[in-house]
Design a protein that fits this description.
Elements: H1 18-31, E1 52-55, E2 58-64, E3 73-79, H2 81-94, H3 104-122, H4 128-148, H5 162-169
Antiparallel strand pairs: 1-2, 2-3
Helix pairs in contact: 2-4
Length: 174
């Protein structure tokens, strides 16, 4: 039996013992009828310095906690670099020159819907830094889009910053 969608499996364990490895292999191969690709199978020891695992758009790694919290390490879960690159590509597409004919309220509504969906998936873990990067990027792209739409460059009203104008137009922040 083949499962075309079952291409990746992650097992998190405190220790890797021969008994655990044997049990997992038995369950996958005999009970589920799956074939393990021994060439692609790898063991990642996250507690080693610099080790990380990318899975389902997230990067898992152990980081040291802040000095005032003591000398502890914690499992840090953040959006992966590939996920952030895909998000920037999607935002670039949504604010490209081909969208010049779309009314601004409609464009901002589509951006907001997309950003809420993306943020709800990546809200797990510690996404604050990644959300800040996405916020900055979408504001910059929307600013470029507004300036490109007309022969006269777009400017916010006097006494209003670009950030405040984006908020007035309805753009959400993650």
């Amino acid at each position: 039996m083949r499962f075309p969608g079952a291409t990746h499996l992650v097992v998190l364990a405190q220790q890797q013992t021969p008994r655990l490895v044997g049990w997992i292999e038995t369950k996958l191969e005999s009970w589920m009828g799956l074939e393990i690709n021994r060439e692609k199978t790898r063991v990642v020891k996250l507690k080693q310095q610099g080790a990380s695992l990318d899975f389902l758009g997230f990067t898992f790694r152990y980081d040291r906690s802040r000095p005032e919290w003591g000398r502890h390490r914690y499992l840090n879960v953040v959006p992966s670099k590939k996920a952030l690159a895909r998000e920037r590509a999607k935002l670039r597409e949504m604010t490209s020159a081909q969208q010049n004919g779309v009314p601004i309220p409609q464009l901002i509504g589509e951006l907001n819907h997309h950003l809420k969906s993306w943020a709800s998936y990546f809200r797990y873990g510690y996404p604050r830094h990644a959300f800040g990067q996405v916020n900055s990027y979408v504001r910059w792209r929307l600013w470029k889009h507004l300036r490109r739409r007309s022969q006269r460059p777009y400017r916010p009203p006097k006494g209003t910053t670009v950030y405040a104008q984006m908020k007035n137009l309805g753009l959400i922040a993650l």
